[in-house]
Amino acid sequence: MEKLVITAVMPTYGRKDVVFERGEGNYLYATDGRRYLDFTSGIAVNALGHCHPALVKALTEQGQKLWHTSNLFRIGNGEKLAKRLTEVSFADTMFFCNSGAEAIEGGIKLIRKYQFMNGQPKRYKIICFQAAFHGRLLNALAATGNEKYLEGFGPPAPGYKHAPLNNTNVVRDMVDDETAGILVEPIQGEGGIRATTTQFLKDLRAICDEFGLLLFYDEIHTGFGRTGKMWGYDWSGVKPDVAAIAKGMGGGFPIGAFMATEKAAVGMVPGTHGSTYGGNPLATGVANAVLDELLKPGFIDAVREKGEYLKGQLEGLVKKHPKVYVEQRGMGFLQGIQCTPAVPAGDMVNRLQSLGMLVPPAGENVVRIFPALIADKAAIDEGIDILSKAAQSFEAAKAAE
Ligand SMILES: *Cc1c(COP(=O)(O)O)cnc(C)c1O
Hints:
CATH architecture of the domain at 69-294: 3-Layer(aba) Sandwich
Structural class: alpha/beta
CATH class of the domain at 69-294: Alpha Beta
Keywords: Amino-acid biosynthesis, Aminotransferase, Arginine biosynthesis, Cytoplasm, Pyridoxal phosphate, Transferase
Low-confidence stretches: none
Binding site for N(2)-acetyl-L-ornithine: 136, 275
CATH superfamily of the domain at 69-294: Type I PLP-dependent aspartate aminotransferase-like (Major domain)
Pfam family, one: Aminotran_3
Strand order of the largest sheet: 4-12-11-10-7-5-6
Bound molecules: pyridoxal-5'-phosphate
InterPro entries: AcOrn/SuccOrn_fam (IPR004636), Aminotrans_3 (IPR005814), Aminotrans_3_PPA_site (IPR049704), Class-III_PLP-dep_AT (IPR050103), PyrdxlP-dep_Trfase (IPR015424), PyrdxlP-dep_Trfase_major (IPR015421), PyrdxlP-dep_Trfase_small (IPR015422)
Cofactor: pyridoxal 5'-phosphate
């Protein structure tokens, strides 16, 4: 028999050689007994840290009652979750799915259907932005537009053009009679923690209103308190017509949604969209428990305040280690620190891991800093201390050259 080289799990990721067996709060414990400060949070997913007692309780209680029934029937937990989320957002209605990319693709369908219903069936194109990330399904990938991710997968799905972020004139010039909407992340995550300006979002809103387009926010990274407000768009106050949410929503249980105003969702009538698992009793039960915690008075305000503290500490690191760190980016617990060209972000991520701290890299040589929203000052201080030690080790290596 021929010996296989391929791993049983398809090797599409460059994984770190570490296996975790347990998580608790801000920490992950590996099979070799090492403890890590987890400032990756499953890429902004584990909003309440690992094994938060309220989530464990919701998961196990719901798990003993009912998991899945299909969308052929009403789902109480889902109706409750949707009602609560409409109360704390711009949206009037939402569709539950299982991931971010699915939420993006559902939102795109909604936008096209809106145009169709409004007598504009030719309008299907979506204006997107350079360095965006919207997921890996074929349309989400075309919206992402990253050449490296698209290579080899055939012609990209048609209708996605990419403008530079925060450049209103280019966006305005891109609008043609086939344009249906504009898709933007209030703060680009994977792209390197790149924020839109309030003025830019206002301009996008105005362009949409002028030309009859829908404004679609990708809040997958920025939603659920990650930036220190419930939604990323709360910083600008500029409301979209459609938004995609996921990541922090289930605190680690897979769930996403696209949500919209009643006006935008005009075409989403029975039979227009579906998902076998989407919004099942177990997923929406857990997501309700996440929301219970996030909506406790002061919880998200505390994220904002702790985020201010983290920001100050990161700025301090930039001052102290200018040969390693260039600048702090972001707010709340969606922050990053850009490394100098001499220190590739991937090397920094590895160094931090060897020092006991986990963080994800991003574009523009940025290392993302994503504490769980429950992280306190002591956890932040621990992280800053490790970031400082990592910088010292790069400085020492440079001095020894
Ligand atoms: C993670 C992410 C996605 C994709 O979500 P998946 O659940 O991986 O499909 C889309 N957009 C943004 C902004 C993200 O951060």
